[in-house]
């Protein structure tokens, strides 16, 4: 099997490779060639850790495997990041393990790639202003991908903890774009594309905040109970997601669905737009992509990085 250590991922994986891998796997899901398996997520009763795995099989890309890991809240004291994960790939012809790949940076890259893919298909024409809600670890990756694959002229941002906004200012500076911290009404009025990536458990962006043609990539809600958007905003928007069942159960749309403001058929998998089965934005003023994070995204970027590592002589071969 091949091992690609976490420390080598940054030098191997490109945003373009992540974008292409995620776009391709969303398309494979829409064609019925790829499916995610049920997610396992358990509190293990040790170190307050949440551990789980997300797996799947892409029969078009022939990628089989799982990402195992979770959240260890006490890791920071040990000088480690709290989210820890590893991707394992298996040969779909024989079941033999074929690769173990560090999954921490890949998770940030695949999550950022998903929102960038959604903007490619759903952003209003001529989008120039990027609005960022959230200033944690993921936010910098989100901004980098949005700017790389969009055509933004400036970035505005808001975060529930204002002291963290320096991350957004620094990232915008790195990308050569002006940045301004604003309040949510201004963010909703001025931004053409909004990326939200927080750990909120109650709505931050309200229906009244969002004005004019806008695309929102809601990326923070990946668990029951989390919430970033006003259900009334969800109810008036055209809705897209990575996987419909996951969006309605643990994603942002769980709330509007529970309140019967939307029905299951109101939510379209982004893959349907990618393969040309759905027109996407059409005449909608507001579109929302609910990025819940699926195992197939992890397998897609891990498969891509194994190929890059092999080409560049950086994959370590071990006997198991
Ligand atoms: P982080 O801990 O580095 O930052 C947390 C962010 O959420 C900050 O902006 C912080 O101000 C805000 N926040 C924290 N507690 C809050 C609260 N109670 N109410 C409102 N806001 C709060 O986290 P991160 O690594 O940047 O991840 C952000 C979110 O994205 C998390 O919820 C994480 O689970 C989620 N995530 C989603 C995916 C996906 O595929 N959809 C992938 C990775 C992470």
Automatic annotation (TrEMBL):
<dbReference type="InterPro" id="IPR054860">
    <property type="entry name" value="BhcD-like"/>
</dbReference>
<dbReference type="Pfam" id="PF02423">
    <property type="entry name" value="OCD_Mu_crystall"/>
</dbReference>
<dbReference type="InterPro" id="IPR023401">
    <property type="entry name" value="ODC_N"/>
</dbReference>
<protein>
    <submittedName>
        <fullName>Ornithine cyclodeaminase family protein</fullName>
    </submittedName>
</protein>
<dbReference type="InterPro" id="IPR036291">
    <property type="entry name" value="NAD(P)-bd_dom_sf"/>
</dbReference>
<dbReference type="InterPro" id="IPR003462">
    <property type="entry name" value="ODC_Mu_crystall"/>
</dbReference>
């Amino acid at each position: 099997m091949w091992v690609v250590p976490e420390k080598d991922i940054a030098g191997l994986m490109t945003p373009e490779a992540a974008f292409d891998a995620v776009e391709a796997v969303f398309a494979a899901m829409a064609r019925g060639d790829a499916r995610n398996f049920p997610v396992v997520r358990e509190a293990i009763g040790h170190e307050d850790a949440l551990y789980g795995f997300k797996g799947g099989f892409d029969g078009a890309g022939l990628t089989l495997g799982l990402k195992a890991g979770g959240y260890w809240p006490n890791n920071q004291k040990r000088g480690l990041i709290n989210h820890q994960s590893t991707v394992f790939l298996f040969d779909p012809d024989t079941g033999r393990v074929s690769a173990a790949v560090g999954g921490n940076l890949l998770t940030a890259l695949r999550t950022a790639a998903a929102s960038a893919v959604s903007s490619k298909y759903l952003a209003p024409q001529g989008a120039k202003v990027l609005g960022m809600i959230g200033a944690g670890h993921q936010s910098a990756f989100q901004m980098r991908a949005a700017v790389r694959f969009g055509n933004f002229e400036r970035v505005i941002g808001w975060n529930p903890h204002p002291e963290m906004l320096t991350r957004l200012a620094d990232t915008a500076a790195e990308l050569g774009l002006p940045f301004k911290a604003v309040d949510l009404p201004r963010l909703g009025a001025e931004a053409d594309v909004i990326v939200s990536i927080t750990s909120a458990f109650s709505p931050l962006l309200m229906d009244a905040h969002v004005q004019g043609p806008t695309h929102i990539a809601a990326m923070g809600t990946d668990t029951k109970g989390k919430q970033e958007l006003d259900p009334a905003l969800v109810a008036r928007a055209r809705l897209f997601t990575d996987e419909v069942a996951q969006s309605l159960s643990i994603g942002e749309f769980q709330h509007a669905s529970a309140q019967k403001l939307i029905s299951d058929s109101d939510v379209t998998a982004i893959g349907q737009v990618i393969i040309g089965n759905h027109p996407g934005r059409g005449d909608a003023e507001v579109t929302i992509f609910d990025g819940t994070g699926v195992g197939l995204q992890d397998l897609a970027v891990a498969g891509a990085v194994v190929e890059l590592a092999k080409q560049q002589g950086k994959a370590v071969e071990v006997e198991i």
